[in-house]
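COURSE: Structural Biology Practicum
ASSIGNMENT: Worksheet 4, Part C
STUDENT ID: 0417
INSTRUCTIONS: Below are two proteins. For each, the amino acid sequence is given first, followed by its structure token string. Answer the questions at the end about the second protein only.

PROTEIN I
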Amino acid sequence: MKNLYKILLARLFNQTNSKKYNIATSNTKSLSAYQKLIQQEINILKLNFKNRPEPKHPELFKQTSNEVIWRIQLANQEYYYMKRDSGFNISQNEYVIYIDTEILYLALLQNALTSNPNEMFYSQWLRQNMSQDDKYPIIAKKFLHSLDNPIPLAEINCGICDSLPSFSFTNGITRTIWLISNYANSFPITTYGKESANLLNNIAGLTDCPIAMTQLFN
């Protein structure tokens, strides 16, 4: 992929100025106790990235005029299924991003370092704490039956705030943290708008460019 993966990792670690944003290490003196644990996790993730191969893309399992289904592989080789169906209007402004789970996790943790410690979302928690989300057991049960009833894609938005990427969820926080906490290799998400799509793809995407949703349903 034209060394896209190596370039992406370099950008995450502030080794190039080719982006208008950066993901830098925070001043630990100003962090809460939990945020200091998050900083430790970030440091471990960065070390693990050094020799980490690019994960496989989500597998396009089924594609019809009514629905698109992807197969998601976890690190333990188990498979689960996610979908986007045409029951909702397919917008020219909607894109699919194939997300590298570990890079998104890193980016969400970086967001947590600049958040109010008392107002952090579950998506900004450490992996081992994500199951404390009240909806987590519900979505875990749904994933177990996802072959028969695939899970809808999460909708994630991305913008720039103070030169740093900022993430928000229209829906699908619990779906996303379940995938993160269970070490999915990669998974598809949806987003609206070229700016959000390009940012998400540049930060954590596995394809050269975002995939237009209309392209999948043609």
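PROTEIN II
(use this one for the questions)
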Amino acid sequence: MFCIGVIVFSLIGEFIIINFRGDQIDFSIVTLMTVSVVLIFFIPSFLLHFQYFLINRNKELIIDEDSSEIMFRNRNTNKLIVFTEGDIREIIDSKTKEKKNKQSSFFPWYNYSYATIILKNGIEICITSLLVNNIESVFDQKHITVSTSFYNWISRR
């Protein structure tokens, strides 16, 4: 979708340049417009992906269906948090409006989301869409509160 947008934008740029400058196409302007669009879309997506990667790097979410236990493990520190559905106070699922409404979007970062699991003992666990794409498929709906934003930058951890 993103590549199609860049191509369409480039073609529109060429059309505008041809109509306003005559028959000759100034490729430096077309190139500048194309690079600008790529950077406008690529840099925010890259930053978001990199932030999500750093947050959930070396982390595992293990669900034991037999014992109904959920384990969140940090492989760097060997810290293990074990909890059950009953230990969850709230799950705040932050996603874009388009993802919430199951719509497509022009922006490449629309599919990025994260959830903050708040346990009754006060522990907060941040899970990004790089670790679990759809938090609603893992946890019971009664704990989940959905919040929407245009760009899901994680301001707290």
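ANSWER KEY EXCERPT:
Q1: Residues 29 and 36 are 10 Å apart (CA to CA).
Q2: The longest helix spans residues 27-56.
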